[in-house]
Amino acid sequence: MKKKYTITDKTITIITGWIAVFTVIALAAWGVWTLHEYYVNEQTNDAQVQQYVNPVISRAGGFIVAVKYEENQDVKKGDTLLLIDNREYVTQADQTIAAIQKTEAQLAALESNIHTLDKSATAARYASAADKSKLWQKELDYNRYSKLYQANSATQQQLEHEKAGLEVSKADYDASESNFQASSSRVQDAVMEKAVLAAEIKRLKSLLARQELDVSYTVIRAPYNGRIGRRTVEKGQMIDAGQVLAYIVNEETDKWVVANYKETQVANMHLGDTAFFTADAFPGKTFSGTIISFSPATGSSFSLLPPDNSTGNYVKIVQRIPVRIKVDGPNGELALLRAGMNVNVSIPKKDHRE
């Protein structure tokens, strides 16, 4: 019995046939386009957007009294992020200020004392000079009476009187000279003590500067324009110096893409070449960039345990070389890209051989 086809069956057959034809044409066109892309471009999907993501670290310890930011908040350079209880640091600084004032008062009193000691030393020097003159006069008198005694013009009693006066003058001069030397030594001692106090003041001022820095560290500010990441601290929490409090994405620096190309793909890539890429988050939008550097070694060479091919268990694996690409374009487009996004990079092939 012959099967009879209805008009509907014929229509379905025709439509199915055309769909198959269009499908084959589309697949062929896609295949040709893909082959063409691989022929004219070096492509990789092993690429991510990179940006400086730095930790916000506390330089002082204490209890947090206020948190001034929220997660994913945009911040400007100098904005206050956290406040730490600074009373202990302020008290220490006040104690150092008091110690400086006390030492400065001691220094002022010592300077006044040095002035008095210097006057005393001057008076002692004048007294010594006067006693020296008296001694000289007594020596002349004694010599004169000695000659008179030898000429029988003076008595033994007169000579002994002059000799006793000479000995007294010598003793007075020695005492005056010793007093002058002692006064001069006291002045020198006071000058040395003044230097010690001046050095102590310098030390205390340096200590105060350090303590004032500690006070300033209790106010944690944004180091640059950026966006804060996840918030992990709260008011009343105790933190230590050096503790990571948050992460901030630096918006002041350029964004870049690290494309990990196979070593067989980088032969004709050069600095300054233009690259195009699409982000998985925005498949219909094409971004552009410029090659700014090539890694000095393959990615595996920088790994924690780089491969050692001298062990005898050698299996050749194509290595990848990170290529750094600076992202170009207006700020509006750059704002769409976030650190860590996956992208597909295409770099037009160029024959640079002469």
TrEMBL record:
SUPFAM superfamilies (alphabetical): HlyD-like secretion proteins
Coiled-coil stretches noted in the UniProt entry, renumbered to this chain: 93-120
Domain CusB-like beta-barrel, chain residue ranges per copy: 256-297
Originating species: Danxiaibacter flavus
Subcellular location: Membrane
Annotated transmembrane regions: 12-33
Stated name of the protein: HlyD family secretion protein
Domain Multidrug resistance protein MdtA-like barrel-sandwich hybrid: 56-249
